[in-house]
Amino acid sequence: MALVQKLLNGTYILRKCPKASAAFCPSLSFRVADYCSSSLQKSGPAAKKGSWLRKSEGGLQGRHQEEVAVDLPSPEEKPEVSFDRAIEDEVKDHFKRLKDEIVNHWIGPEGRPLHEVMMEQAKVVWQFRGKEDLDKWVVTSDKTIGGRSEVFLKMGKNNQSALLYGTLSSEAPQDGESGRSGYCAMISRIPRGFFERKKTYDWSQFNTLYLRVRGDGRPWMVNIREDTDLIQRKNQMYSYFMFTRGGPYWQNIKIPFSKFFFSNQGRVRDVQHQLLLDKISSIGFTLADKVDGPFFLEIDFIGVFTDPAHTEEFAYENSPELSPRLFK
Amino acid sequence: MSWAQAALLARGLSRGWGGLCGAALRGAPFSQVAALALRGLHRSAAACSSDLSLVPSPPESQRRPVKVLEPHEELFKQAPGGERDKASFVRAVQCFGQQDVRRRGHVDFIYLALRKMREFGVQRDLAVYNLLLDVFPKEVFRPRNVFQRMFVHYPRQQECGVAVLEQMEQHGVMPDTQTEFLLTQIFGRRSYPMLKLVRMKLWLTRFKNVNPFPVPLHLPPDPVDLAKLGLRHMEPDLSARVTVYQMSLPSDPASPEEPAQPHIVGIQSPDQQAALARHNPARPIFVEGPFSLWLRDKCVYYHILRADLLPPEERDVEEVPEEWSLFYPMQLDLEYARSAWDDSEFDINEVEEGPIFAMCIAGAHDQATLAKWIQGLQETNPALARIPVVFRLAGSAGELLTSSGMEEPPPPRPESQEEEEVPQRQQQGQG
Q1: What Pfam families does the record point to (chain A) (predicted)?
Q2: Does residue A251 lie in a domain region?
């Protein structure tokens, strides 16, 4: 299935090559929509392919998108794209991943010796030290529902941190059903293994999330999703707030995982339970503070660590008034 | 087209059928049932179209100007002289209450009032929300028997009540006991507005004081006070001193060649002063900005005075000699880590940037204003007279506000070592 999708991707590139026609392949239009607000592409096996995708997307998004993807090929040089080549690269890439997985399994969890993993007290999960780190993230805004917010992600000027910037606009889309709007988000991609198998993060030995950021005084929301195959649970996540101080100084934010509250479809649930850390699929940052205007957030790295002083298991008690069944 | 008509007809029929069943259940006389069914048939199209508008749209603040006046909108138009404040809003709500004893159309009125609240500037006022809830007739919508309690009793009214509470939640207004009393009086204990109220009581209190960098709810209107607040907000050092270098003066109409004098407010901590005194005069320091800072819904722009990061060979580590204090050593080189599992450091090199010497918020973002700031700084920092100051200003703040990220991105952060993107760069050796 995954390979089929990849192949469709390949044909998509081929189609994009001579002339972009919007209504040519309706079955693929969802991919375009998917990429619409994202500034970055999946790290394809062939860098050329990736940059070409970026190029085509720059056409979709207007010229600002081109600014985000700096490593564009010049319009004169035509990247050679061939169907067989795409398949070959995909297959090679997947077998490489399979080999890595087998070798890593032989060495230990995550490809490191067991004792090292077990004794680890602090771990950097995401860092931003190069363009390839940005490929692990997706940015999205309410443009996908017809709003006007814009968000872009790029490397900072010193090439050592990620800069998430854009404009928030809470103007509701004129589609007749949406009453409110205005969000921008940055979501980490779900890590994929051999044959697009979903992989997860296991943070069960840590208890605190650590972020080194610099913002402009706006409040953000940190959302963590658990890995699940149930379609009913796909909108469930655990959230907490991240308040930026503003100003020129870097800020270290520590959020204990016990503070994260449970929500479904954007509504806080009555029955709360704590975040289970053994299968984390992604993390996201959302800005929706109803204040129109430009914003930025700079992220140095995101890590998890064990705070021995923090013993709280879960910060929110259930209310007998709201969920009496729990108290029977 | 015909299938659409058929669908409408079917829908109307089912409505009529539902009315029929409902009426039959209630044991109404048969003639009434027939009339109901007929009416269902006749108003099918109208029912369908009004169905859409009946769905209570959540309180919309920015609604397109509608040509036709909505019902009860004239109440809000009455205010003479265009004054739109709490008093006129309360007067409009009271007018509605006096119009009719039966409060006909109160749901529409409440939705309209919710949309109008921002216009009148009362969206954060708890008393006004209580007044709005008071518009509901009391004791009418309370379920009286098991069956009414089992199903949603008066759903439109309950949704309207929830919409009022939702708007309160959006603006961070905590309901009080009067709200609770009103809701029990109107809808009863077991109703959706009461459920919403309980949830609000639970969650709003949990998150009320969660911000570690609190900003006052009502920001000072004076830009100088706002600038002081913003500088204090940004500076983590509590011993830092805020200085007003220049108060804002409007341009004098008598002498038009004198431009308006913008305000300049700066902040500097003693540590920063000491660092600036130690700074090597051979290396320039930079005035950078403007960068944005959001205080609730207001945006102020600040500038910083900073130097580049020293190359590692020039950094001199400050050695504290052991002889300073024999009894209380200032420095201890003890190995505290017990073994490998005690290592709680992140395995990463954090982004390092040059030191920041001062920050300022000025009314204008041009170089002349900032040069005045530097001159003011020289009084407390004599070393600044020997150090060359380079202005790296990225456009004016007005552009930043209107650009919406298309023309030029919001100013990238000042951490660059490479400087090829600096738009204006003027060397200004002082002293």
Answers
A1: CIA30
A2: yes
